[in-house]
TrEMBL record:
This is DUF4176 domain-containing protein. It comes from the Bacteria.
Length: 110
């Protein structure tokens, strides 16, 4: 994600590039197991198909740069602003970790 782009709030509704189904953002900063490789992967977002909502077997993980169109921006308040500050530090920690530093989601209260 470019530094000038903000993570979308929960409840935002988007269309992915070349996608035809709206998704609602139900999670952010997800670390999940890749079904093909078995390794942990990171995604900016977890999405659910709109309007049906969460189905654990059909959770969609995607990056901010995969978003083609924002249909609706979810609710945001002062807690969201604080979350974004912590999230940016945590995400930078993931980059630093690849340079032999160790950070975990728990280090930042996730």
């Amino acid at each position: 994600m470019n530094r000038n782009e903000q993570l979308l709030p929960l409840g935002s509704i988007i269309l992915l590039k070349e996608g035809m189904q709206k998704l609602v953002v139900v999670g952010r900063g997800a670390v999940y197991e890749d079904a093909e490789t078995g390794s942990d992967r990171f995604a900016d977002y977890m999405g659910a198909i709109y309007p049906t909502g969460i189905n654990p077997e059909k959770t969609i993980f995607f990056q901010h740069e995969n978003i083609d169109k924002v249909v609706f921006i979810g609710y945001s308040d002062e807690e969201e602003v604080r979350f974004l500050e912590i999230y940016d530090a945590w995400r930078q920690g993931l980059v630093d970790a690849s340079e032999n530093e160790t950070y975990t989601a728990e280090s930042f209260g996730f």
